[in-house]
Amino acid sequence: MTDNLSDAQRNGLLALDTPTICNALELTNPERRARGFTVRPLVAPFPQMKPVLAHARTATIRSKEPSPLPKDKAKTQRLAYFEYVEKGGPRPSIMIMQDIDGEDRGYGAFWGEVQTNVHKSLGCVGTVTDGCVRDIDMMAEGFFVLAGSIAPSHAWVHLVDFGGTVNVAGMLVNSGDLMHADRHGAVVIPAGMADKVIAAAALIARREAVILNAAKQPGFTVETLKRAMGEADDIH
Asked: How do residues 61-78 score in pLDDT, each as one tens digit?
């Protein structure tokens, strides 16, 4: 199942970085100014990667203690999870995975060589997790990663649940939410807001261009800045 974004909408959003998306949402959805995005630092193992735009699949994990499920039930759960990754909503997908080990989150890695390749083949473009990752040099090519940390072992890592609401680095996400992410962090784009976000980003860029152009001119002063700010305010 593909999403209902047009090519123009998808390309327009992918042309923006995540901070710009956040700026645009401050105009289009001011009630969300202090929520809907990651607020704690995450590691970007591949900072050169371009932004990604995909629909959330959500899950929770633990790794400090073994799964309480018997082996056969754990396997059944894992297969149901993979079916959810593949068919649980619009594609492409991105896994938003919360580690619920509290102060010990990141004790063991879910994400590495195997899981990035499996998820990529199931239509997933990447993950945003407050847990840890490993196998950096062996991850699936082009798989986007933001993580709480990098660590060597998977310890007792196991799924706890999937498909519900998660909180990763202060960002609340529901399954199916449209996500934009890059090396800065991730943000939820509210449903039906693609065109307004793209238009707001363009407006912000025009306003900022006036100030930036003035700041780069010789003899820049506060008076110059005041005039530029006034000109920017007149752009609608």
From this structure: 999 999 999 999 999 999
CB atoms within 10 A of CB 91: 18
pLDDT of residue 228: 80
Residues 6+ apart with CB under 8 A from 133: 43, 45, 109, 110, 111, 112, 127, 139, 145, 147, 149, 150, 151
Q: Where are the beta strands (DSSP E) in 2-82?
A: 52-62
Q: State the CATH class of domain 7-191.
A: alpha beta
Q: Peptide bond preceding 92: is omega within 30 degrees of 0, i.e. cis?
A: yes
Residue 165 pLDDT > 90:
yes
Q: What is the pLDDT of residue 142?
A: 97
Q: Which phi-psi region, left, alpha or beta, contains residue 133 (left: φ > 0; alpha: ψ -120 to 50)?
A: beta
Calpha distance 41→64 (Å, rounded) = 22
Q: Give the C-alpha separation, 208 to 213, whole Å.
A: 8
pLDDT at 79: 98
Which residue's entry shows tokens 């305010």? 233
Hey, where are the domains in the chain? Answer: 7-191, 196-233
Which whole-number Å values give the CA distances from 128 to 140, 156, 216, in the listed order? 15, 20, 37
Confidence label for 192 from pLDDT (cuts 50, 70 and 90):
very high
Would you say 38 and 169 are in contact if contact means Cβ atoms under 8 Å apart?
yes
